[in-house]
From TrEMBL:
Belongs to the FAD-binding oxidoreductase/transferase type 4 family. Keywords: FAD, Flavoprotein. InterPro entries: FAD-bd_oxidored_4_C, FAD-bd_PCMH, FAD-bd_PCMH-like_sf, FAD-bd_PCMH_sub1, FAD-bd_PCMH_sub2, FAD-linked_Oxase-like_C, FAD-oxidored/transferase_4, Oxid_FAD_bind_N. One of its GO terms (molecular function) is catalytic activity. Residues 47-228 form the FAD-binding PCMH-type domain. It comes from the Bacteria. This is FAD-binding oxidoreductase. Transmembrane segments: none annotated. One of its GO terms (biological process) is respiratory electron transport chain.
Length: 481
């Protein structure tokens, strides 16, 4: 049985704990009062909690010391990185009984080895900074997500983030060779091994990756790098339908699957929001289209023939009518401008009004059916809703997002969020998909777990949680119902 929620009993700030934390971490390491405002609300504005304090340890030993103090006082901890969670996974509850533990000061790159092709980095380093460190060593950290300028490595790994390049390199989990973490009893798990092969029992790092801070607080990691591409081609195509987008992906995969680095789908509705609400975002095509595809090919060889490949495949698609118009980037600036049209989708939708986000996945072959059936179901449920699906067609992960109708208030629309999510997920389930592809479960979706992951699977998760965290002090109320 799940343990009682430690935040269920409201209590005043534990002055003894705060004094002990200040003594251990220094005044700069403990924030209270209004100084905590930037840590208690999630990026989407769905959850605004309270906290007795935000603690900001500067190294792993300080994280462990803070954890031991909180355990001693039976105070729950909410680990937080860049606070970019889409599902409230890093937000404290409303009663103020929890401590937020920010990893932002653990921001050192410990080392890059271009021979081993590894990057050792602390949890508070942003994904963008980690990418830059790899690039300076002539390597590529292939993990890429829209929030990489703010998202931190610890949170990226705790949620097993996916992103744009999953079709080629896999999710975050596939890139993690080693992990350092503080466990719920205050012990430091040192698994910072740079080994491709290490077959010595349970892979604890894989339990921690994707656990959303419920089993341990990741403080550092060893990430696997790849060679820096020497040849890159990016194109934007206007297509008539999701079926046409899938056909284009299948043709690229048939011709050279190793060349595909990203393959992104965007709806006409979503693209219109980007070009109308984001300054400087312009569509580089002669006419708008019902849907769009961004394809990126990359190779470590300068003479890989990617330009010929992308022009041949798109040229044939233009001839047979499955692609209405297309542009192939002629420079790095044009590649960046095309990618910006994809990366600004979340921000544009945020500016357009309240949204209900469905981070779902289905088999790649089922993506067109998902979009068609979920669109029909949601339009029937909420007349006038704006439907703007986009995402990673190449790995089957579509962000099936819905924006409030023009004649409905934000509050009224968000009041139906679970009803809308359940409607989308009913379609996803018939297609053998998942209700969370890369954003995690967080505070938003634990209610789905018994139905989707019940029985032996959920029981195993609860047993693991009990073994690691018997007091339920690490990110309680997240992930598990």
């Amino acid at each position: 049985m799940p343990l009682p929620h430690p935040a269920s009993s409201s209590r005043p700030a534990d002055t003894a704990l705060l004094a002990a934390l200040r003594e251990q971490l220094g005044e700069a390491g403990v924030l209270t009062g209004r100084d905590t405002d930037g840590y208690v609300e999630d990026w989407r504005g769905l959850y605004r909690g309270r906290t007795m304090a935000v603690v900001r340890p500067a190294d792993t030993d300080a994280v462990a010391a803070a954890v031991r103090l909180c355990v001693q006082h039976r105070v729950a901890i909410v680990p937080q990185g860049g606070n970019t969670s889409m599902v409230g996974g890093a937000s404290p509850h409303a009663d103020g009984s929890e401590i937020v533990l920010s990893l932002s000061r653990l921001n050192r790159v410990r080392g890059v080895d271009p021979v081993d092709m590894t990057l050792s980095v602390e949890a508070g380093v942003t994904l963008q900074a980690a990418q830059a460190a790899a690039r300076e060593a002539g390597c590529l950290l292939p993990l890429s997500i829209s929030s990489e300028g703010s998202a931190q490595i610890g949170g990226v790994l705790a949620t097993n983030a996916g992103g744009n390049n999953t079709v080629r390199y896999g999710n975050a989990r596939e890139l993690v060779l080693g992990v350092e973490a503080v466990l719920p009893d205050g012990q430091v798990f040192n698994g910072m091994r740079r080994l491709r092969k290490d077959n010595t029992g349970y892979a604890v790092r894989h339990l921690l990756v994707g656990s959303e801070g419920t089993l341990g607080i990741i403080t550092a990691a060893v990430l696997q790098l790849a060679p820096q591409p020497r040849s890159v081609e990016v194109a934007l195509c206007g297509v008539a339908s999701p079926e046409a987008a899938l056909a284009l992906f299948s043709e690229f995969r048939r011709r050279d699957p190793s060349a595909i680095q990203a393959f992104e789908f965007m709806s006409g509705t979503g693209m219109a929001l980007v070009t109308s609400l984001i300054d400087g975002a312009t569509l580089p095509l002669a006419e708008t289209a019902p849907h769009y595809v961004l394809v990126e090919l990359a190779s470590g060889r300068e003479t890989a023939g990617l330009r010929e490949l992308i022009e041949e495949v798109i040229g044939q698609a233009l001839e047979d009518g499955s692609v209405a118009d297309a542009v192939v980037a002629e420079s790095g600036a044009q590649r960046a401008a095309i990618w910006r049209l994809r990366e600004e989708h979340s921000e544009a939708q945020k500016r357009a009004g309240a949204s209900v986000k469905n981070d779902v996945s289905v088999p790649v072959s089922k993506v067109p059916e998902l979009i068609a059936r979920a669109t029909a179901a949601c339009e029937a449920l909420v007349p006038g809703v704006r439907i703007a699906p986009f995402g990673h067609l190449g790995d089957g992960n579509i962000h099936f997002n819905l924006i409030q109708p023009a004649d409905m208030t934000r509050e009224a629309f968000l009041a139906r969020d679970h009803e809308i999510m359940d409607t989308v997920c009913a379609v996803v389930r018939t297609l053998d998909g998942s209700f969370s592809a890369e954003h995690g479960v967080g505070m938003l979706k634990p209610y789905m777990m018994p139905d989707w992951r019940g029985g032996a699977e959920l029981d195993a998760m609860r047993r693991i949680k009990q073994a690691f965290d018997p007091l339920d002090l690490f990110n309680p109320g997240k992930l598990l119902p």
